[in-house]
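Q: How would the structure tokens look for this protein?
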Amino acid sequence: MATKIRFKRIGRRNRPFYRMVVMDSRNRRDGAAIEELGWYNPIDENNSYNLKEDRIIHWLKDGAQVTDAAHKLFKKSGLAHRWHLINQGIDQKQIDKEMEKWSLNRADVEKKRLNKKEVLAAKKEVTEEVKEEVKEEVKEEVKEEVKEEVKEEVKEEVKEEVKEEVKEEVKEEVKEEVKEEVKEEIKKEVKKEVKAKEKKKDKNESK
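A: Here is the predicted structure in token form.
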């Protein structure tokens, strides 16, 4: 019987969770599994998983094919490396030694990856802080520029308002001045007329 080791999804919508199973390769994707070989949680922070390595090795020896997705998890767990060593015909003692080396190397890789993540996170944090500082500085600069622009606009508006007010004040002042001048002129003319009349009267009386 041709068998395949693959993932079988059992999680809710938008919350995937997988069982690793061995199935008859002729069965439907959601068909019954021959055996459960572990699980994998891709939405967990550490992408946690648990594999029954001895049973997986058993099925691999039996000729089971592995899907690409399942093989990726085997590589991550070190099972792919173990299977590679078994295929080379190395004895169990040597395999254990090689796997110990692999674990140490994997731990070192994970440590470097974690450090890189921390550096990137710190860099991102500093970038955000600097961005906020620059934002505040730019805000102040723009504020000053806008303030000057608004000042000029307001100045023009006030200038027009004051112009109108002064115009009215000057108008009243000039009105009063003109009124006085006209008054003086009328006075002079009236005096002239009165004098002329008196002169004429005197002339008539002397005849």
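The radius of gyration is 51 Å.

Residues 92-206 form the longest helix (115 residues).

Upvote if useful.
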